[in-house]
Amino acid sequence: MPKAKNQNKSKTNGWVLARKITQGIALIFFFLAVVFSRQNGLPANLVDLTIRLSPLAMLSHLLSSKTFLAGSALSLLLLVSSLFFGRAWCGWLCPLGTILDLFRFSYKTDRKQPPENLRKLKYGLLIVILLSALFGNLTLLFLDPLTIFVRSTNLTLLPAMDRVIYALERLLIKVPFLSEAVFKFDAWLRPAILSSAAPSIQYAFLVGFFFVAIVLLNLVAERFWCRYLCPLGGLLGLPSKVALFQRRTNATCSECGLCTRDCPTDTINPQKSYQSDPSECTLCMNCKQSCQKDSFSFSPKWESAARQPYDPDRRMFFASLGISIVSVALLSLDWVKRKARSFLLRPPGVYDETDFLSKCIRCGICIKECPTQALQPDFTQSGLEGVWTPILIPRNGFCDFGCNACGQNCPVQAIPPLSLQEKRQTQIGHAYIDHNRCLAWSDHTNCIVCEEMCPIPQKAITLDKSQFTLPDGSQVELLLPVVDRNRCIGCGTCENKCPVKGDAAIRVYTL
Q1: Using omega within 30 degrees of 0 as the cis cutoff, is the peptide bond preceding 191 cis?
Q2: Confidence band (pLDDT; 50, 70, 90) for 8?
Q3: Minimal CA–CA distance to 140: which of 238, 231, 235, 59?
Q4: pTM of the predicted model, to two decimals?
């Protein structure tokens, strides 16, 4: 008998080990898929896979933009899989869930758990996100876990890695016998993995703070995010109620409580014969490892789970509908955008602001792919409705005339996938010269930087010769820059290179 018990223990350990190995492989895969882009030679579908796996992101995009993306069929497979394996995605594959498992701050069994009704939050957020998407608003989609992972990796983790590696290289390069190896390593690293220029992302600390806050919620309860807040978990939890494979307790249970102690989502209820809610169970198999009597199974059986007090109901739906209507109305108010609309530049090919906001899922991929860091996450210029959407800031970086990476890498085609030739002819805005700040116009100093830097073959900026009389009575011939707005595409190269301190003397305005 003891021998059989040991064999069973070895078998259950194998399940947990298999889960941890799968989690590790999946996390590495998703990280590499985010790091590498099409320009690095990876297939387009592989790069888009991380985002298009999310049923929440794809369903919200469908409701908002009224367009179905071919690659979004992958998310349907994930949703259908929950009818068979419940929320196994959350316990075995989700990169954010794996990271939360890595930061288990406490194993105390006597820690007070949050109230069960708090689980309603994720269902409320799910309904609000989907209803808001139906009204054309995707602002709350920044709560999608895969979007959080991609955005945090692109805008916070990779820039932080870049700075740390650069600091280490500066130290190691001072060691004579290491300098050559450091140069070779850096030549391999850039631009294959990290960008050639040190990334400078505005509001990166806010993205990082949000991600760290999700991890720190583990201090309150293990996998707090997954239990109470994750809208994707709520979406997968609904079909999981009738999943084929569910945890089922049998009569041999001795009610020792070990499974309750080890359950990361605290869904095993001692008051109900140690049964669990399949919409909360992530099939982590920790309970199977804990149980010494093989008192439950995951045998296949189509059976609807008992209703829980926190399950979504009619009252929650109508409350969420009201919140969605009010929030969409408030978010669409123009009181913030009106102040900055003149400089609200979007990526090339984006002309309709409303259409763009109904498609952009705030993943940050385009920002990461921009080689000059002209694209930055917005937090103020486009209002609350446009938080985390990409805007072009010429003073930070110009739109490279030989690059179309943003449109080619956008997983939801919010930025049109323009060919390089089409992109070079696409107008982003128009440049205007402030004669009161221009060195040539106001200080009577020959400065032709904007004309020299203009990438348009026929030059959108030309130089007019003019005679000026200086205060001492002498005559001077100046070359004054003039913008031909029929040729200007608003790439911002002139604004970026303008030598005037502070705001440039030549600025790109929206069309």
Answers
A1: yes
A2: very low
A3: 231
A4: 0.88
Residue 225 has pLDDT above 90, yes or no: yes
Quote the CA–CA distance of 230 and 91 in Å, as a whole number. 13
pLDDT, averaged across the chain:
87
Other beta carbons within 10 angstroms of residue 125's beta carbon come to 21
The residues spanned by each domain of the chain are 2-297, 428-511
Amino acid identity for residue 158 in this structure: L
Cα separation, 281 vs 283, in Å, equals 6
- Chain-centre distance of CA 291, in angstroms? 39
Question: At the topology level of CATH, where does 428-511 sit?
Answer: Alpha-Beta Plaits (3.30.70)
Among 374, 382, 377, smallest CA distance to 339 is for 382
Rounded Cα–Cα distance for residues 161 and 167 (Å)? 10
The H or E element that residue 461 is part of is strand 461-469
| Residue 491 near residue 485 (C-beta atoms within 8 A) | no
Residue reference for tokens 């070359």: 479
Tell me the DSSP string of 60-96: HHHHHH----GGGHHHHHHHHHHHHHTTHHHHHT-HH
Which residues share a beta bridge with 461? 483
Q: Taking CA 19 as the corner, what is the angle to CA 117 and CA 411, rounded to the nearest 5 degrees?
A: 75
Burial (Cβ within 10 Å: 0-12, 13-18, ≥19) of residue 87: buried
Condensed to tens digits (0 to 9), the pLDDT of residues 150-177 reads 999 989 998 888 889 989 998 999 888 8
Burial call 381-420: b when 16+ CB within 10 Å, e when fewer: bbbbbbbbbbbbbbbbbbbbbebbbbbbbbbbebbbebee
How many C-beta atoms surround the C-beta of residue 192 within 10 A? 12
Q: What whole-number distance in Å separates Cα of residue 430 and Cα of residue 428?
A: 7
Question: Which tokens go with 409?
Answer: 């890498």
Please report which helix (H) or strand (E) contains residue 431, including its range. strand 429-433
Cβ of 124: how many Cβ atoms within 10 Å?
17
Q: Work out the end-to-end distance of the chain between its first and last CA atoms, rounded to an integer number of angstroms.
A: 80
The 10s digit of each residue's pLDDT in 346-374 is 999 999 988 999 999 999 989 988 989 99
Q: 50 burial class (0-12, 13-18, 19+ CB within 10 angstroms)?
A: buried
104: pLDDT strictly greater than 70: yes
Position 269 scores a pLDDT of 86
Phi-psi region of 310 (alpha: psi -120 to 50; beta: other; left: phi over 0): alpha
Cα of 237 vs its chain's centroid, Å: 22
Rg (C-alpha) for the chain, rounded Å, is 28
Q: How many CB atoms lie within 10 A of CB 441?
A: 20
pLDDT score of 415? 95
Tokens representing 445?
């100093």
- Residue 273 CA to residue 249 CA, distance in Å, equals 8
